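Technical note accompanying the year-one report. For the benefit of new consortium partners, we illustrate the data format agreed upon in the data management plan: each record pairs a sequence with a structure-token string. No post-processing was applied to the example shown here.
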Amino acid sequence: MKTSVDALGYYRILTATPTDDTATIKRKYYEQAKFWHPDHNEAPNALEMFQKVSVAYDVLKDDFLRRQYDLLSLVYEARNFPTLGSLKIYKNQIGQDDAALRVLKQRKVLPHLKGSQTVETKDVCNFKEAMSMVGRTSRANWFKGWWAPDAVGKNIAAIRFNYQAVEAEDKDNLQLLVHNAVAYEQEHNTEMAWIYANQAYMLAETMGLATAQTLLTHYIQELNFKPKKAVRLPKWQARELKIRQSVVPFILGAILLFWVGGKISSAYLPEGYFELREIDGQLMAYDMVDTHLMRVDSSIHDKQYLYYIKKDSIIYHGPDMRYQPMVQGYEGQTVRLFGYTPDKKWFKIVLDNGEMGFIQSELLQKGIGKAVPFGSKVYKE
């Protein structure tokens, strides 16, 4: 990752540095303008250099433009540097303003009769859109990506790339976050600029980019945004995207194991919560979670069995992390206890929409957390 903040050479043309104050920038501009003025300098490139000096000074003399130039120089090269003052805001897939965008890179292998082709896509999207894209790409690679003479190696490489790329911790994502911070500031949307700048700072910190951290710290201070209420910065749930990519191979592995061994191994359904029955000569697995569940007399009007989630956690379809994830539970979310496993390590809970899933008991705290929304199936006065 580059550490220069002079992508277009504006500081260099004035023989200045990014740490020079405005007075120094002005003095060095007059020195260079006087030196390169065509009335005094007979060099063939004197006029061109004089014009470049003027362009550089027009940006660096303006604190607003200079700050944005410095930031954009961190993430852009001269060849793709955007036009200052007219940046286009990156939005989600349906064209809406969105504070939780990332760059999602995915590779898909397209087989042909004579070979195969690897296609890489790069999309700006929010987490919900990413979940859909990741699922489609995963299904395409696992079901269609092998059927060509040279496809196996390419498909393995593509699946590995996709699994790692969802972390979204790279220069493309830093560029997106910095770009949108500056673009929203130009539109006088200080809150969105502040949110994107803070996300950019956290990513720069993760990537170990000291220069970027310093510039972003100054930028956030100069935005001087004072939220009227607590602002929760968006989180990119890479773990859930990786789980989504694992669904297809998990299902294929289970089918293969059943076909080869004639039964489903206890590696896929936790011991003590299933049984095998012979139906028409075939061994079938029956989920017995609810059979073994210790239920409580839980009423929607009773506060006795209300709990809240201590931190962001996954809620599963069954009492084990090897079951398929059902939904994301959020810190402070109020839920109602329906029952628990005999060892009390897993609780079955009721969510606002009436669905039920399992969560580890250690992740719950008795009582009401955040307010229960209107119409919730968790609690009603």
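Partners are asked to follow this layout when depositing records. The mean pLDDT is 87.
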